[in-house]
Design brief:
Length: 259
């Protein structure tokens, strides 16, 4: 899939209560290229002297009719703090779309599980299935209700389930403790993104149920094109770059998921 570098106009920025925000951007020139669910962009952070490297952000959603790209970002450091200060009309530079996405071929009963910022790529994946005439089951989880800023985005495309550590919404507990986990045999594939511990637990349950599971890794990335090697992860076939050969992998391919 062709990769491009270009400038984007900030159409809107919406801040939520859990140090996260949504950027709505549109290319200044040309049209958005096709992108797969699970791919990401690399944003240059301007006006932040301490931030030398671009920041990798998952594609949350794309509206090709309005040529609008949605990026869901959590403030975790100086780079994302600088991005949170963007205003309507500002211009950002991005390299996109990067990485390999989720494989949806032949899947009719998917279960999507997202936690934290890992909920973001589940939205585009959910809409991707919906356009194919499939209503996916989506399970999202967070520490509290405040971590579920994206829940309303799923209402038209998925059967949404919620889990909160503190029980403030949905079922109380981790996503791996949700009652839907007792019905894994009704799904033909699981897709997950979120904290590593969560994904490892989901992958273990999938393997026990004999269901393939694709995970989207959130390794630290610098270049996004496989040059710096800082995002390398061990697999059963050797070390592989997450930014170019991932971020999506079958869980059975990853050494850290097979211990």
């Amino acid at each position: 899939m062709k990769k491009e570098i270009g400038d984007f106009r900030v159409l809107k920025i919406k801040h939520y209560q859990d140090k996260d925000f949504m950027l709505y951007v549109r290319p200044l020139k040309g049209e958005l290229p096709q992108a797969l669910p699970g791919q990401f962009v690399n944003i240059r952070v301007d006006h932040s002297p301490q931030t030398l490297l671009r920041r990798p952000i998952s594609i949350c959603d794309i509206d090709f009719n309005s040529q609008t790209l949605l990026l869901y970002i959590k403030i975790v450091g100086e780079g994302t703090q600088a991005l949170s200060s963007l205003k309507e009309g500002n211009v950002i530079n991005m390299l996109y779309p990067l990485g390999n996405g989720f494989n949806t071929e032949g899947i009719n009963h998917p279960l999507l599980i997202g936690g934290g910022t890992g909920i973001a790529p589940m939205l585009y994946l959910s809409k991707w299935f919906h356009k194919k005439g499939i209503t996916p089951t989506v399970l999202i989880g967070g520490r509290t209700q405040a971590a579920l800023s994206l829940k309303d985005f799923f209402k038209d495309t998925a059967h949404l389930l919620i889990s909160c550590d503190d029980g403030s919404e949905g079922e109380k507990g981790f996503v791996t403790q949700h009652s839907i986990i007792n019905k894994l045999s009704s799904f033909d594939k699981i897709y997950t993104c979120g904290p590593m511990v969560m994904m490892q637990a989901v992958a273990t349950l999938a393997q026990q149920a004999g269901i393939p599971c694709e995970v989207s890794l959130e390794n630290v990335m610098a270049c996004g094109i496989g040059a710096c090697l800082c995002c390398v992860t061990p697999t059963v076939s050797g070390n592989r770059c997450v930014c170019t050969e991932g971020p999506v992998f079958l869980s059975t391919e990853l050494t850290d998921f097979n211990n």
